Structure formats: structure tokens, C-alpha cells
């Protein structure tokens, strides 16, 4: 009996030390409104493609983009993270001085092993919400090749490396393990 208890205790201790980066087959989403502090954003919860698409429909894109322009605050953003593949997809909106609404799409994916940047961020300009819906479906299907092809059809805004958010990402991910 003691031997069995010892092995169960040892197994429990070893499992507590597992990496927070192990795959978890779940998607989580969050939102950032124009007046909110991006450092305080927490995941809303788990989601599937239909739930996320419904949140996209409900989100007040134009109103929030106007508020962001008026107060020079954050771009309103909805994002979803696939904890299994360590990839994220976000949608931000903005208005120009003529009140025309546009969107920025971000695709965040793991960096190459051994590089300082844990994740890369590619951002594109997209005019139509219909194209964004199609991208979201591909993201949830984990069809990276098709998603990258569709993204490549959009004007690229920028590429960057994410050196700062990795630890915050791992802490968020730990909540869902």
C-alpha cells in the first residue's frame, strides 16, 4: 500500500511540473473595448466557431472605432486563441476621418525554435466582414494553408515579432489546462 501511495504521489508531483505550453484542445476568446486597458484584458471563456461568429455580429464595431478615434485609445478588438496550436487570430476596427469603417486582421503564430521572438504577428487590412468570417472559419478548422492563402490576398499592413506577450499568454493558457 505504501509503495502504491508513493508512486501516486510521485506521479502527481511530476504532473504538476508539466509545461504550460502543452497542447490543450480548446479555443478561448477575449474582447478589448476602446476604453479598456489592454494589460487588463482577460479571456471571456471557451468558444467554438458559431459562438465566436455570433460575438462578431454583436460587437459594436463602428461605435467602438469612433470612440477609439475620439479618445485616441485602443483599437476595439475581438481575438480567439487556439491553445492546441498556439495560434491566435484577432480582428480590430478603425474609422478614418470620413467615418469609413475598416478592419485589421492579425494572425499570431509560433516563432521558429531558438529565436528570441516566441511568436510572430502578421497584420492585414480587410474591408469586408464577409472575408473575415471566412478567415475565422478556416482558423477554427485549423486549416492554416487555406487561411494563409486567403490572408495573402489582403493588403499586408505589417509583420512583427511578439517578444513581450508570451509569458502573459502562457499564464492565460494555464487557466484552461
Give an account of the 3D structure.
- A hairpin with a 4-residue loop joins β3 and β4.
- α4 packs antiparallel against α5.
- The longest helix has 15 residues, at 2-16.
- This protein has one domain (24-174).
- A 7-stranded antiparallel sheet has the order 2-1-3-4-5-6-7.
- It has helices at residues 2-16, 49-58, 61-71, 129-141, 144-152, 166-174; strands at residues 27-32, 45-47, 77-82, 87-95, 101-110, 119-126, 156-162.
- It is globular, with a radius of gyration of 19 Å.
- By secondary structure, it is of the alpha+beta class.
- The model is unreliable at 1-19 (pLDDT under 50).
Topology:
Layout: H1 2-16, E1 27-32, E2 45-47, H2 49-58, H3 61-71, E3 77-82, E4 87-95, E5 101-110, E6 119-126, H4 129-141, H5 144-152, E7 156-162, H6 166-174
Antiparallel strand pairs: 1-2, 1-3, 3-4, 4-5, 5-6, 6-7
Helix pairs in contact: 4-5
Amino acid at each position: 500500500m505504501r509503495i502504491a501511495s508513493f508512486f501516486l504521489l510521485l506521479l502527481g508531483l511530476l504532473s504538476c511540473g508539466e509545461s504550460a505550453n502543452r497542447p490543450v484542445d480548446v479555443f478561448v476568446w477575449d474582447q478589448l473595448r476602446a476604453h479598456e486597458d489592454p494589460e487588463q484584458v482577460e479571456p471571456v471563456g471557451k468558444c467554438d466557431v458559431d459562438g465566436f461568429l455570433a460575438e462578431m455580429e454583436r460587437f459594436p464595431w463602428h461605435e467602438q472605432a469612433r470612440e477609439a478615434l475620439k479618445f485616441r485609445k485602443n483599437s476595439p478588438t475581438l481575438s480567439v486563441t487556439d491553445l492546441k496550436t498556439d495560434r491566435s487570430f484577432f480582428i480590430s476596427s478603425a474609422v478614418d476621418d470620413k467615418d469609413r469603417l475598416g478592419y485589421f486582421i492579425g494572425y499570431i503564430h509560433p516563432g521558429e525554435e531558438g529565436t528570441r521572438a516566441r511568436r510572430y504577428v502578421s497584420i492585414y487590412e480587410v474591408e469586408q466582414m464577409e472575408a473575415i468570417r471566412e478567415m475565422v472559419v478556416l482558423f477554427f478548422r485549423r486549416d492554416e494553408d487555406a487561411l494563409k492563402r486567403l490572408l495573402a490576398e489582403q493588403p499586408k499592413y505589417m509583420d512583427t515579432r511578439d517578444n513581450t506577450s508570451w509569458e502573459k499568454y502562457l499564464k492565460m493558457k494555464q487557466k484552461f489546462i
